[in-house]
Amino acid sequence: MLARRVLCFWLSVIFQSWLVVEMAKSGSCPSEKDRADDLVAAARLLMRNDRNDEARACLELAVAKAPNYVPGLVELGTLASKQQDYSAAVTHLAQGARLEVTPQALNNLAIAYQELGEHVSAVSVYRRALKLDEDDPAAHYNLGTALERAGEYRAAVKAYREAIELEPEEAKYYNNMGGSLAAYNKTETAERSYKWAIKLKPKFVDAYYNLGNLLLATGNVEGAIERLEQALRIDPSH
Length: 238
Fold this sequence. Notes:
Layout lengths: L1 H24 L10 H13 L3 H14 L4 H13 L3 H14 L3 H13 L3 H14 L4 H13 L3 H14 L4 H13 L3 H14 L4 H13 L3 H14 L4
Helix pairs in contact: 1-2, 2-3, 3-4, 4-5, 4-6, 5-6, 6-7, 7-8, 8-9, 8-10, 9-10, 10-11, 10-12, 11-12, 12-13
C-alpha cells in the first residue's frame, strides 16, 4: 500500500511538471488553481524564450495567489526591473526582502532604487547586502556607486578602497574611485587612480577619457590631448 502511494505521488509530480512545461511552451500559464511554485516555474520557462509579457502575467498570478511567496516576489520584481518598471520592481523586491533577506533580492532592489534616482535608499539596501557578505568586492563597489550618485564622495572612496583591497586587479574600481576623488578636488590622487586603472586594463577607454578630462580641468592641456587621443584610437566612436 505504501509503495503504491509513493508511486502515485511521483506520478503526480511528473505529470504536474510536464503540464507546466507544455503550458509555458504554448504561451499560457497553468490554471490559477495551481500552486504558486508551478506558476513561477512556468514563468521561468517563458523568460528563457524571451516571452517576458507572458512570464510577467504568470508571476503576477503567482503573487496574487501567494502574496508571501518569496521566489515569486523576487522573480516578478527582477522582471519588472528588466522591463524598466522600476516602481513595481521596488514594491515586489522590497516585500521579498522583508520576508527573506537574500543577496539577489537586495542587489536587485538597490538597482531599482538607483534607476528611480533614490540613491539614499540604494545606499541603505547595499549596506544591508554587505552585512550578508563583507568579503564580496562587488558589494563594496556597488555601495560606492550608490554613494557617488548620492554625492557622498568621501564615503564612496572608502567603499571603492575596500573593494580594491579584496580584488586589487579590478580596473573599474580604480576608475570609479578616481571620479569620486576628483569630485572633492583630490586631483593628484584621482590622477594616480585613473593611471592604475589603465595599467591594469590598457584598453580601458573610460579611464583614458576620464583622465584626459581631469588633466584638462587642471590645465595640463598637452597631457589631456594625449590621453583623449589614446581613447579615440581605442574606440573612435567614444
